[in-house]
Here is the input.
Amino acid sequence: MRRRNFLATALAAAPAASLLSGCGDDGDDGTLDYLSLAWQKESMEANKALVAEWNKRNPQRPVRYVQGSWDSVHDQLLTSFEGGEAPDVIHDEANDLTDFAHGGYLADLGELLPDGLRNQIPERTWDMVRFGGGTYGVPFLQEPRVLVANRRLLDDSGVRVPDTEDPWTWDEFEAAARKLSGKGSYGVAWSMKEPVNQSVNLSLTTGGAVFYREDGKDVVRFDRRDSYVAELIHRQVNRERTAPRGSLGMSGSDTLPGFFSGQYAMVPLNFSYRQQVEQQAPDGFEWTALPMPAGDLGPGSGPTQGMSPQTLSIAQDTKRKEDAMAFIAFLTQPDHMARLAAGDWIVPTGRKALRDPALNTRKHDWRTGIGMSEDLRASPVLGVRGYAEWKDKIATPAFQEYYSGSIGLDDLRGKLVEDGNRILARYQR
Here is the structure.
């Protein structure tokens, strides 16, 4: 059975019934395996319903839904690729595609993409999945970072409430955090258990990038525009005390109890956290989602954020690439893409899907995410070989030490740049 090992591994955390239903007697029976990483109830239901609809319309080329997990997908996919047992259609994230593409495990979708799908997604979004001369995924969902704020505390403070048309500058955000702090409470809680992606992606707001191309190679720099937001976070935690040191080791979910109790007035979170906030907030608690601040350091700065979208890819070794692409095109039809985005509480990439009435509403501040979509650009880390090692071995501990005040800016810069460039050079020989 061609894919038994992958299915068993991917579903190891799922109930036994799910494992049995996801694995037939013959992995080469003409059925396409679709690995989905949907995890929220509404998203899983939407994915399974679309698979069922596809199968009803296409009985000659059926699809089998396979439930995976974001927590372990990279290692599971690597094992399955090396063993020739990968699923045909793969739901993943652009961050994860670089090494798989360089390893020859993913199909280049350039010649397979139908014009309708290609034209629905903006070029700036296609840039998020292009590297090494190929296109290795269809970017279909994206998730900006927002400020989730306590509405009552915001109104009582008298600060200007920003929107996507007129976001705060970083200076205004810093001033708002000061106004919202006091009497044992903090203006903002930065969750930095995983500090690297947000530190890099927010550097785009000030015209930075951290990763650059020089003489055809990737290099790390950490100059003023790259470090501006990191310096602000360090200042809020260690000098102004408008952000608690205790939140630095937290995940986004860990900050919510303190947010609900009024200990933190604002928490920077990914857009999908709105669902968790809505479901867990105590009765009468009012919250709102605000755009992240925009840089004002001159040309190149603004509300831009780096983004690593969710993607749909095709395994290189599948013999049914055209069928796999037809299924991806079906999943990403505008109404289907909007349905999947709604189920995940995040933002679609397609132009028509972004105009879907269900997403263009003030309820739960959907309009904030939709309004931010124009300013989402490819994360500087995408396509950088060696990024994962730099992130795990160098950047994560270095940023954590810096934000907590254990090291200064010069030490942080030395670790990120000097140690980082040695790692990147090894991957680019």
The radius of gyration is 22 Å. Confidence is low (pLDDT under 50) at residues 1-27. The longest strand covers residues 264-270. The domain at 4-142+309-378 is CATH 3.40.190.10 (D-Maltodextrin-Binding Protein; domain 2).
